[in-house]
Design brief:
The structure holds two protein chains of two kinds. Chain A is mainly α. Chain A contains 22 helices and two strands. Chain A is globular and about 70 Å long. By secondary structure, chain B is an all-alpha fold. In chain B, 64% of the residues lie in helices and 0% in strands. Classes of the chains: A mainly alpha, B mainly alpha. At the A-B interface, α8, α9, α18, α19 and α20 of A face α1, α2, α3, α4 and α5 of B.
Chain lengths: 495, 163
């Protein structure tokens, strides 16, 4: 019933127009090489600032889905996946494009994303109220423990070494300390700079680390890489054979992606890898994979989209972002004065269901808009690299000073850009820093609330079975990679 | 631990970047701990505003030491690709000129034009004047769209006031 109300709200002509603009902009920016969905959302956030809350939310949903889809187009046509979750898509998708089957590859990615998005959004609509029922009973200790799980899994799943992932997370936590403490008014780590009193903007960190850092990284080695976009030859439509081979991977991908995205485990790349491996095992023709198998595009793309929708479950119901994209989206919600969490469903039920309805609409709009416009998107890929990155930098700087017009903000942006460059160069993941910045202060708040209730007794976290269990999970997830690494070295020495 | 053998063959080559990262992390930890130490507030039940600072300082210190241990270990050490520092420097100039333009009140359009042109040059473009013109057109368009249509505040300069 509430969902119907949400649709009624979202389906006005004006809001449909906002959704259309959002999907268009999201795809256009997301398609640019090196720009993943997190950065797309961060870059386009200023566009939505001055709209009414409903309209901006709807445009926002469109940007989000558009950015997701744009990433897969880059992976297929250019073989330069903008984010970890598109790496698998590039494996078979680029092979297909090289054989002149880029059209069907893009089509199966688009339709698969639509199917998976539809399944997953229905999942959100059903699952969210259930989780909210549980979440309203959560104490501060439970939230704190949940955030510990998110911290550990986000930094352990990204990148190749837990030490590097945790270091990136610690950078985010450190930045999260900056500014005035909400409970006591105490300034932390502001070094006497008044602009730092408000704390670090998540979007500034995301744009600096992702956009400026990526641009510096690309320019530092621009002589070594030169990928040309694949021309699309032949029909862009899928044949009957393609449909037959695609529909099962779509559904399987959605079934794998949604639950994993919903866990506070972060990272959409895990379900895409799982889906790829599953499809390869199930494929009858053993030679198909590695030579442009459409199943290898259909499954992972569906899994990617479903898991991205899955991250909306902890984000909306618990206020817990478990990926960089979700962290940036949370920052967006806060711009519109919306604080996700169980209370949101109770107090602003209409708004939540409008958002969920907009996700449906944006998803459908994506399909209608993108298949006929593939030609235009391909042309975007042909923008010469110098102009492309120059344009990205201008837009990134504009977004940052529009949100907060000050030189200090620009300098901070450039510093984050340098940090992002160095982190990329030495193989440190950047996403945990973004999650750390937004979750750190929240964890601090819950920790102190819990200790306030227990009159300073830290045992409060272990006396509740729920938080004790979650802390144990977080601890195991933290220690396991180091232990297993040690074990494997031990075995290696035995041999 | 990590000594270069007199013969010159480096069996225990120290991982320099990791060592530097470790030092930076320890420095951050020290700054954070000092900042927490110098806060003044009325004490309450274990919920002081500096508790989190001390926690983060502790995490940073542990990670710093972790980097030292990891740096001393003979690792496979993924080779870092040689960077084109001239191009990186040109891009630094691009970003610096934007900051300078905003700081000295030359405005958003001038800053963005320079940012665009220098960045394109960093990526190997030679036609500087053409890039300046393209950057200028893009900057004006962005300014019109965001300042006039979406009424966002962008840094104003003499040029912006004319439009």
């Amino acid at each position: 019933m509430l969902l119907a109300g949400g649709f009624a709200q979202a389906l006005t002509p004006m809001n449909l127009l906002f959704a259309l603009i959002g999907v268009f902009l999201g795809t256009a920016v997301g398609i640019l090489p090196g720009i993943g969905p997190a950065l797309t959302v961060a870059l386009l956030l200023p566009v939505t600032f001055k709209l009414d809350p409903g309209g901006s939310l709807i445009m926002f949903a469109g940007i989000y889905y558009g950015g997701m889809y744009g990433g897969s187009t880059t992976a297929i046509l250019l073989n330069t996946p903008g984010e970890a979750a598109s790496v698998v898509t590039a494996l078979e998708g680029n092979k297909m494009a090289r054989q002149g089957r880029g059209g069907p590859a893009l089509a199966t990615a688009a339709i698969g994303s639509f199917v998976a998005g539809l399944v997953a959004t229905i999942g959100i609509a059903f699952l969210a109220p259930v989780i909210v029922k549980v979440a309203v009973k959560f104490g501060p200790w439970d939230y704190f423990a949940l955030m510990m799980i998110a911290f550990v899994t986000v930094s352990a799943t990204f990148g190749n070494s837990p030490l590097k992932g945790l270091t990136s997370l610690a950078l985010g936590l450190w930045l999260g300390l900056m500014g005035i403490d909400g409970l006591t008014g105490q300034a932390r780590l502001t070094f006497g700079v008044p602009e730092l009193l408000d704390g670090i903007e998540v979007t500034t960190l995301a744009v600096g680390l992702f956009a400026i850092g990526e641009a510096l990284m690309v320019v530092s080695m621009h002589k070594t890489n030169a990928e040309k976009p694949m021309a699309i030859k032949g029909s862009i439509w899928m044949s009957l054979e393609d449909w037959k081979r695609s529909w099962k991977p779509w559904l399987r991908g959605a079934a794998i992606g949604f639950p994993i995205g919903g866990l506070p485990a972060g990272g959409a790349e895990v379900p895409t890898f799982l889906s790829y491996n599953l499809e390869r095992k199930l494929c009858r023709d053993k030679n198909a994979f590695g030579n442009g198998a459409i199943e290898g595009v259909a499954g992972p793309e569906a899994a990617n989209n479903a898991s991205a929708a899955g991250t909306m479950v902890p984000l909306l119901t618990l206020g817990l972002p478990t990926s960089a994209t979700a962290a940036v989206m949370l920052a967006g919600f806060q711009q519109y004065n919306i604080q996700p969490g169980p209370l949101l469903f109770v107090q602003h039920a209409q708004l939540v269901w409008t958002l969920i309805a907009s996700l449906f609409i944006a998803n459908a709009m994506l399909l209608v808009l993108n298949l006929p416009m593939i030609g235009l998107w391909v042309r975007l890929l042909k923008i010469p690299t110098p102009w492309l990155y120059a344009g990205i930098l201008v837009f990134a700087a504009m977004g940052t000073i529009a949100a907060n017009p000050s030189v200090v903000e620009l300098i901070i942006l450039v510093l984050f850009g340098i940090a992002g460059f160095l982190m990329r160069r030495y193989d440190y993941p950047v996403a945990p820093a973004v999650v750390g910045l937004i979750l750190g202060p929240m964890a601090d708040l819950q920790l102190r609330r819990a200790l306030q209730i227990s009159l300073g007794d830290p045992m409060v976290f272990l006396n509740h079975w729920s938080s004790a269990t979650m802390l144990a999970i977080a601890f195991i997830a933290l220690v396991a990679p180091f232990v297993f690494k040690g074990l494997s070295r031990f075995q290696a020495e035995e041999d | 631990m990590a000594e270069v053998a007199p013969g010159g063959h480096q069996r225990w080559a120290l991982d320099r970047p990791k060592l530097v990262t470790g030092i930076i992390l320890l420095a951050f930890a020290a700054v954070t701990a000092y900042d927490a130490y110098s806060m003044s507030f009325r004490s309450a039940y274990g919920l002081n505003p500096n508790t989190a600072s001390y926690l983060v300082a502790g995490i940073l210190a542990i990670l710093g030491i972790g980097h030292f241990i990891s740096a001393a270990r003979p690792s496979e050490g993924a080779a870092v690709v040689e960077a084109d520092w001239k191009a990186v420097g040109m891009m630094g100039l691009a970003l610096a000129s934007l900051i300078a333009c905003v700081y000295f009140g030359a405005g958003f359009i001038a800053g963005s034009t320079l940012l665009f042109a220098f960045t394109a040059r960093a990526f190997g473009r030679k036609a500087f004047i053409v890039d300046v013109i393209i950057g200028f057109v893009i900057a004006v368009l962005i300014f019109l769209l965001f300042n006039k249509l979406l009424t966002l505040t962008l840094p104003m300069g003499p040029l912006e006031r004319l439009i």
